[in-house]
Amino acid sequence: MIGNNAVMSDENRKKLLELDLKWAKIKMASYEKKKEEVDLSEYYDEFMENYNSKNHKSIYINTPESKYEHVSDDKIDELIKEFEKFKCILSPMYIDSLRAMKSDSSSVVTKHTPVKEAIKILKDIKWVKKGPNRKKISVEEVYNKCCNAAKLLPNWRVVFSKSTAARMSIKGTSIRIMKDATFYEDEIEGLITHEIYTHAYRKFRGMRTGLWLFVLGMRGNSKANEGLAIYNQMKYASPYKNTLKIIALKRLVSYELSKIKKNKKGDIYDVFEKITKEYTDIPQTVVYNTIMRAKRCCSNTGSFKYIDSSVYLDGYLEVKELDVKSRTILSEYPISIELAKSPEISDIVKFLNVNLFPQINKPEP
What we know:
This protein has 365 residues and is mostly helical.
């Protein structure tokens, strides 16, 4: 075993970087197309027309294809064997991640917040309507604020984008702002805290480790990333008042879609009807967007595939319970919540500090 205090030989160092790159290409191929490029608003009228006429036909989403080819389970198994043979302190994290990428990953158990907790939040917290006197802020002002925040990230840039699934998002080493979006003064600090001070900063720190494992994310990093971002947003900035309700809604939508996938019965229109009738305070556009964001991995919404958005509520509730030391580690390294709590993390940090791999300077392998 290549341990925490060992300076790797040139041969082992080269081997780890080679295996890490192989892992990164498989990780990129596992993503469901370029989901962040989909503009969901253009399908709203079609969806509502189908829903109101009780015509539950599928909607075809124009989703750009990924440039990475699908990788077979046999290829994934081959790389798992290479990591098992290599026996590095990081090998278990690569192996755990690879097993979750296989087409048959039913043995990989993901524990979610009980849906009854999401339902309780949805019932107890009423939707806060945007007041008529809410002050808008121009995209130019938003751009300037983002540029100022991004000064802690050398070589990162702030750009305007016409095509993005969110008003502000991170792609590669760019902080993207939707050029035609509407922003309000009372939400900007929260958005910047969420996207730049959490998502972008964690990715920047990952790139400095020199390993793609810490850039693209080990298993559980997505839950940590979203949970920490929401925790920071709600603790350190003026939060958008419906944040907790929105992440509870995401958990409920994922739960309903998982039932449809399991039972092979029902569709997105059934989910929309059930939620809008049960929680009349939530705007229909919000429910629509939450459902369609979960389905944006599909060219056809009739597919049983969906993106599980439970990570937002799961992550937030778990991050909230962490001690200060674990939360600080989670902020500094793009790792899972479980690893941040584990005694093993100190050995991993020592390993990275001893070996100092060359910093990654590109957003994708």
